[in-house]
Every structure is written in structure tokens, then in C-alpha cells.
Amino acid sequence: MGRPAYNPNMVDFSAEGLTDELDAWLATDGLVLAASERAARALTTSYHQRRRDAGLTAWAAPRIVYWQQFLRQCWQERTHDARLVLSALQEQTLWASLVGAERQLATALEGPRARMGKLAMEAHALLCAYATEQLAAPLRAGWQADQASFSRWLEQFDARCANEQLLSSARLPLELLRLLEAENAAPRPPLLLVGFDRLQPTQRRLLTAWGQWHEAAAGPRAASVHFYEAEDEATELAACARWCRERLNANPEARLMVIAQNLERRRGVIERGFLRHCGGGFEFSLGVPLSQTTLVRGVQRLLRWLRQPMDEHEVDWLISTGQTASSNAESAALALRMKRLRRRDRERARWTLDDFVRERCDTPAPEDWVKRLLAARALLNEQSAKQTPLAWSELVPRLLAAAGWPGARPFSSSEYQNHRGLLQALETAAALGFDGQRIDWFSYLSILNRVLHETLFAAESAGAPILIAGPTETAGLAADGIWFLGATEEGWPATAPPHPLLPIAVLREAQMPHALPKLDWALGEAITRRLLSSSPEVHFSYARQKDGVEARASRLVTQQASAPQPLPAQWHVATDAKPLTVLFEDRSRIPFPPQNATGGSSLLTNQSQCPFKAFTTVRLDARGWQPAEAGLTAKQRGTLLHAVLHSVWSGAPHGIRTQEELLAITDHRAFAAKHVERVFADHLPPASQQMPRRYLELEQKRLARLVAEWLDLDATRAPFTVVDVESDSLPKIGTLALKMKLDRIDRLKDDSLLIVDYKSGEVSPKSWDLPRPEDAQLPLYASFGVPPDEVLGGLVFAKVRTGQCEFAGRVGDARETLLPSLSAAKDIAKHPLTAEMLMDWRDAITKLARDFVEGRAEVDPRQYPQTCAYCELHALCRIGENRALLEEDSDAEEIDA
Ligand code: SF4
Fold first, then answer.
1. Contact status, residue 66 vs residue 34, Cβ threshold 8 Å
2. How far apart are CA 710 and CA 712, in angstroms?
3. Is 857 in the pocket of ligand 1 (CB under 6 A)?
4. pLDDT for res 16
5. Which residues on neighbouring strands pair with residue 537, listed in sequence order?
6. 877 lines ligand 1 (CB under 6 A)
7. What's the average model confidence in pLDDT over 306-330?
8. How far is the CA of 726 from the centre of ligand 1 (A)?
9. With bands split at pLDDT 50, 70 and 90, how would you rate the model's confidence at 709?
10. Residue 43 CA: distances (Å) to CA of 33, 39, 276, 744, 772
């Protein structure tokens, strides 16, 4: 008989009359038994389609069931057994609790315990399917190490199931077998098996006990079979996607299957490849964990936040989804609050709900939102500390409703399905309390999270013409064309290590999967043959290069199909093809109106680094996002250092102004410590309230040491006086006035001025080099900030770094006016400040200001990719998409040079 198409629109390619055999079988009271739910669904759909095509308006439902459904139905029909048949998650939980009861270090945490529980459940299922005699404990007496542990858990599992009236679904075939053997030999409907790549020994025994059965005959071998070799995986995927597009263009009704292994891992790559080379029209057989969908992830975070602090980026994400906001205005107000908190230096690494609501800021959280969230929290707090999972599951929808979830936006179709999945997951989590245990809220959340992680969500089939599936998932399905990706020697037939909880002798004796290479080969061969008879056209392919390693063609496919051939030219796409982005040079310019610009000197620095950066930061107020840290951030530490040095040099009553005063201080460390203490009392950021006191004390000591080290250097300088600290100035360049603040201005012994900029990181005066300075602050002040009656003696970075305090910059005569001990070989001594330099800077600064005012805003990084590495505007400028073109430009420049 013919295989059902996975989609009812598929044209049945099978030999004439084979489909009729299915109909004849069903007409004579036979039962069709499919290997999987998907295959049973496809068989049923195609059966109905044939009736409709024949013009019928009513017909009997076909008797088509899948294996698990068959077992359950037959068992329930034959017994009034009160035992609860465990779901997969219930059984895994039971195994995990047995594993955890041994209190081994390796399974002390929930994650490893759940994983070991799953392994134990799989080992038990293998014994039930292949080696039932080993279920008797005495036969396992000689098992060693991990296998002995499993044997012990299995005994406990059997005892728990007996005491608590539970039944593993892996035991269902054995229970049914017992019932069938004890039953009077009443005639049972004959079975026609579809899509079984491999029959396990227990399945065979059960089918034999049932009576008459046979497997559906394979369809005819495909008329067109090819095996291709591609250079790499990207080329292979592109060829497959192009083949799909070509087939669908020729016949829009065609139904195609793409087979790929490790779909869970490769799903993103395949999706991108198909979107690029085929367009749409495809769907995956395998879903994604429900916990990865936006709607459900929002629920998980919201439920957690009611009791636990949440990372700042998670709070931010939750707000951005709008799942807790009753309107767009409320959503925008929450986002604005988050932004303001950050701009006011009130970011935190973790936020409790209370902190987020109460933190002072000029943009409070919307009142209604606060009421709802606190009401939900109050509802949770009213509950007893420990409840059954059922009671917690019933509470969750009430908590969500109280919090106003899912917000103002109606569900999309896929969100609606996510929601249904969530409700089912709540039921599953409730059912995990089958043993009557009472647990606290966090234990319940961890169970719910596990259920959401284990539940795969696949949006309902939209009847897409291309199905992308794993090799075993296609059992019982047919298509107009099949393409099998990844047919390498290592990849196909698929191999895996033998099960670690079962002795290798038992595995081999029972011929369990992966016990011997020949077993993997036999299964791979069966699947390959099945694929070859599931479509008139079958293509296999493999990539010669995989993860940078040379790969060989699958021997199995070579044997079953042919030796690999190069990809046909029409499907071959060069993987270094140019991006789809089309560059469009926007020459329009919107002049900046005459006014003070925000951003100070950084405006010109940005204009020099990349005109687009200046435009977006100053005119669109776009800013990057500095994640909060558990301790002080680098920026906060820098601010504290500036504040301490400002306090030191701000004159009476606490500070000093001249080098003479500095020399009179005998203990620079104690002097610095006092200023640090004062600054820490007044200038610590609000987030420091959450930081440990000891950490702040250590920070204080570190800073005092560092400032003292700098004062030691200042003490060795040529005589100087501090003229001003943190001085405001408003240099004007044409119509552009820039507010700027200078760290410090000294008067040197020759009466000239020295501009000082404190830096705690690595900096160099090379950053002032023309034509595009990397940092324009000091050149700007040197060109436009010095009063006309003053002389500029130099501009320097004061590099305040532990063990490496020094000056770097340009000074008229550095050894004479700045630091007599300076080596003549030092850059600052070798390259003095000159009048030409000042004139060049003036011209460059004037040009940058003019470009900004004229609205020059092109995406033009000063040095790609270095300039972009620390810029946070990638999402706006889309530099990533244009990267290849920029690289091409720089290659061309190198060649020209
Ligand atoms: S990421 Fe690069 S190209 Fe984009 S704005 Fe920043 S500097 Fe310019």
C-alpha cells in the first residue's frame, strides 16, 4: 500500500492500487496501526481526502491508531485496573526522586538529578522493550558501579509503583501481553503496521499474541535517486533550499520533505538558509521548548518576580514585551522609568519588585501597574507556605489575572496556541503531585519550568508544502520529493554510545540500540530503504567540510544510492555571495539649528569617529545601555576618582591649590584617605546601598592608595598652581556652542596654562592625530577655550593608574615646565606642542563642527572595525549588514596602496 502524504494535498506517487489496499483493509474490519501520532494523522487525513475526491458526503471513520494509543485503548478495554499510568514527566519525577534520595553529591542539584532520572527512565524502557527478563532483580545481582545503582533504583521504583498503584507506560505492553495471553482466543481485528522502522522484541511478542498482523509492503523504489557532494554545509543547505523552490515553482501543489539530523541544534541555521534561498513555505516537524516562546517566558519571569529579585535585563525584557501593561501608554511609561533610572545612575544588577516600585526617580511606575503587581504578590503571600502542585497550578492563572497579564495586546494565533500549551503545562505540573507531596512556591516554580522546558511547542501545521524533519519522524510519510542533508560517513547511519546505566553484555545480548555498530547500520539501512520507497525523487547530500574538518560520504548512502556527484550548477550558490542589503547613499542633510548642543566635546569626538554616531547621540538622543554590575562599574569608579582629585585640588577649607601646599603635606596617603572618605559619604551611586560594606571599604582603600601615588608624582613636578578644577566653559565654533567641563587647569612656572584630563585607562596623545582625531576634547579646548590673554603651555592626559602614574600629551617644554625628572627619550619630551599643531587642530575642529551643523550624518566609522567595537549603535546604523562591503573597500585600498 502507499504511504500517506504528510499533507492531504499531496499527490500520491505510489503504484496504482496500493492505496486501494489500505481502503480494502479498513473495509474488511482491519485495524491500521501507525508507528507515530503524526503518521496516524496523515493516514487519516489522506483517507478522508480520497472519500471527498470520490464525491462522498458521509463515510465511517477509519480505524487508524498509533502505537501508544493502541496500547492504552486495548489495556483499558480489558481491565478495570485502578493503577495510574504515569505520564513521561510523572515517571521522570519519580525516578529523579529515587535518585535524589541517595543523597549523592553528583545529584544534589535539581538539574543533574532530573537528567539522571531521565537516564534511569530510558534504561528501564529499554529493559521493558528488549530484555524483560532483566526486570527480575535476582538476574541483576552481578551488575557493577553505575549499573548497580540503577538496579537498586529499579527495585525501589517497582516497590513505589506497587505501593502507590502506579504503572509505567513502558510496562503497558507487558501488562497487555499478559491480558491477551489469558484472554479466550476471541477473534481480533487483523493489524496492518505502517511506518515501523524497527520492531522491538516486546512489540513482536505482543503482536504475535494479538493474532493476525503484517507490515505494509514498501512502495516502489524511487525512479530518480542522486547523491551530491557540496564544499561546505552552507552550500549544501542552499542547494537543497533552491531545489525546493525550483520544484514548487514547477508544481505549486508538490509536497516535499527535507530530512536533517540534529534538528534541535541546527534549526536556526536551516531556517535562515531556507528563508534566504527558498523564501517561505516550510515548517518543522519538531517544535521548540514552550519555555522559549516569548509569551511563556514572560509568565515564568513574572511569577518569579513576585517573590524573588530578577536580573535587570530580565526586568527590562519583561517590560518590553508589554505583558504586564494594561495599555501602550502604561508600557511606554514603564520603559521610560527604566531609562530614567539608568540615566540617573540608579541601575541595579538585580531588582526586587518592591525596589523597582519604590526607587526614587522623576518618572514613577504607573499607579495602576503598581496596584496590580502588588495585588498579585499579596495574593501569593496569602497562600500557605507549602501546597500540593495542584493547588499551586490552580493559583497561577489567578496570579496572572491579578497582575494584568497578558497586557493590552490581543493574542496572535501563535500566542493563542502558546497559551493553550501553558494551560496544559499547568495541568501536567499539577499532575506531578500524584504522590501527594506538598511543596513550597519555588519548588513548584522549578517543576513548572521543567515541564515548560520539556514540552515542545510546534505551531499547528499550516499545510506548508515543505516539511523539515528528522529521519525517524518521517516514518509512514511520503512526498513528491525528498532531500536528505548531512549524509556523511560519521553522520549516517547515526551512532551513539551505549546506554551507561545498562551493562554492555546485556545491551549486546538483547541487541539494544547502539550496542553494536552493526545494529546502528541495520537501522540506518532500514530508514534509508524506507525513504527510497517514499518518494519518486530522492536526493542525498553531504558537505566535504564540516566544522573545519574534512568529511567523507556516507558508505550506506553510497551503497544504496550511488557515489556522490558534484552539485548541479543550477542549485550551486557561492556562499560568499554578496549580502542582500542594497547600499543607498543618502545625501540629504538636515542642518542643526543655532543652539547649544548637548554632549559637549564628545559631540565632536563622535563626529570625528563616525558622523552617524554624532547625529544619533546628540540629535536623536540615542544612548547605549550599560548593564548594572554587582559592584561599582568602571564608569562609577572613574567618577569617584575624579571626585576625589577634584576635592584634593579645590582649595580651602579641605583641599589645596599649589604644589607648595602639597609639599608641606608629609603623609599623602592619610591626606588622600580623608578626601576619599568625604567623597564616599556624598558621591556613592544609589546602587551602592546593595553592595557589601566590606567591598566598599576595600574600594575606599584602593582609591586612597591610588590618589596618594598620583600626589607623589605631582610633588616631583616643576612648581605649579592649580587655576581651576572641573571648570565649565562654553567654547563657540561658528554657530555651535559646546558646553564642556575640564578636569583641571594648572599654571606652570613660565606662567602658561596646562590643561589636564584625568584618565584611569590606557590613552595616548595619538588619539589627537589628524585628520580624524579619536578624541577631540583637549584639542577643542586648546583651539577655542583658552582666553585670548593667556598662553597655552600644554595639554596632557594625567594617567592615574596603580604603579603606572604618568603624564602623556604635548607640552611646550615638558622637562622645564612640567617634570624635570622626565627622560629625554619620552614621547612627551620628544614631541613638544607647536604653533602649527594648534593651527591644524583648529582647522580640523572647525571642519568637524561645520559638518555637524550642516547635518553630515553618514555611517562612516573612522577605522572599521576598531571604532565600532565600543560603539553601541550597531542596531541603528546596521553596520553588520554592510560589513562585507566595507571590508571590500578596505581590501581595495590596501591593493591601491
Ligand atoms: S557602530 Fe560603527 S558605524 Fe555604527 S554608528 Fe557606531 S561607529 Fe558608526
1. yes
2. 5
3. no
4. 40
5. 224
6. yes
7. 94
8. 30
9. very high
10. 10, 6, 32, 82, 69
Span 337-354, average pLDDT? 88
Question: What is the rounded average pLDDT of the residues 130-135?
Answer: 96
C-alpha cell belonging to residue 270: 536551516
3-state secondary structure (DSSP) of residue 755: strand
How much distance in Å is there from the Cα of 668 to the middle of ligand 1? 43
Centre of ligand 1 from the C-alpha of residue 607, in Å: 11
pLDDT tens per residue, range 12-26 = 434 344 477 778 888
Sign of the Cα pseudo-torsion (331, 337, 343, 345, in order): negative
Cβ atoms of 157 and 102 within 8 Å: the answer is: no
Strand pairing category for 256-259 and 466-469: parallel
Q: Is 672 in the pocket of ligand 1 (CB under 6 A)?
A: no
CA of 600 to the centre of ligand 1 (A): 19
Looking at the whole model, is its pTM more than 0.85? no
Does ligand 1 have an atom closer than 6 angstroms to the CB of 867? yes
Q: What is the number of the ligand 1 atom nearest to the C-alpha of 874? A: 1
Q: Which among 434, 435, 418, 428 has a CA at the least distance from the CA of 449?
A: 428
Query: Residue 7: which pLDDT band, with cuts at 50, 70 and 90?
Result: very low
**Tens digits of residue pLDDT in 556-569:** 999 998 899 999 98
Angle (CA) 172-175-177 rounded to 5° is: 105
What would the pLDDT profile of 244-266 be if each residue is shown by its tens digit? 999 999 999 899 999 999 888 88
Mean pLDDT for 283-306 is 92
Confirm if 523 and 517 have CB atoms less than 8 A apart.
no
Return mean pLDDT, the chain.
89
Question: 874: CA distance to ligand 1 center in Å?
Answer: 6
d(CA 480, CA 802) in angstroms, rounded, equals 71
Kindly report the backbone phi and psi dihedral angles of residue 437, in degrees, each rounded to the nearest multiple of 5, phi listed first: -65, 145
The stretch 841-850 carries a mean pLDDT of: 95
Residues with Cβ within 8 Å of 566's Cβ and at least 6 positions away in sequence, in order, are 228, 229
Q: Is the predicted pLDDT of residue 617 greater than 50, yes or no?
A: yes
Under DSSP, the state recorded for 281 is -
Q: Name the residue of 583, 610, 774, 876 whose CB sits within 8 Å of the most ligand 1 atoms, as the mutation to test its pocket.
A: 610
Question: Which of 581, 606, 609, 612 to mutate to test ligand 1, by most ligand atoms within 8 A of the CB atom?
Answer: 612
Q: Which atom of ligand 1 is least distant from the CA of 865?
A: 2
Q: What is the 3-state secondary structure (H, E, C) of 415-440?
A: HHHHHHHHHHHHHHHHHCCCCCCCEE
Burial class (CB in 10 A: 0-12, 13-18, 19+), 505: exposed
| Distance separating alpha carbons of residues 311 and 105, to the nearest angstrom | 28
432 and 222 Cβ atoms separated by less than 8 Å: no
pLDDT tens-digit series, residues 38-55: 888 888 888 888 889 889
Q: Please tell me if the CB atom of residue 535 comes closer than 6 angstroms to any atom of ligand 1.
A: no
Query: Could you give the angle at which helices 172-182 and 201-210 cross, rounded to 10 degrees?
Result: 30
So what's the pLDDT on residue 15? 38
Which residues face 728 on adjacent strands?
A: 741
For residue 877, how far is its CA from the centre of ligand 1 (angstroms)? 6
Q: Quick check: helix, strand or coil at residue 409?
A: coil
Q: Residue 797 — φ and ψ, nearest 5°?
A: -90, 130
> What is the spatial distance between Cα 282 and Cα 392, in angstroms, rounded to a whole number?
39
- Is 67 in a helix, a strand, or coil? helix
Alpha helical stretches, state H, 436-583: 441-454, 504-509, 517-532, 555-560
- The Cα 75–Cα 72 span in angstroms is 5
DSSP, collapsed to helix, strand or coil, labels residue 366 as coil
Average the pLDDT over each of 45-49, 743-747, 778-782 and give the range with the smallest value.
Answer: 45-49
pLDDT at 39: 84
Give the amino acid at 358.
R
pLDDT tens for 82-106 read 888 998 888 998 999 898 887 776 6
Tell me the percentage of the chain whose pLDDT exceeds 90.
63
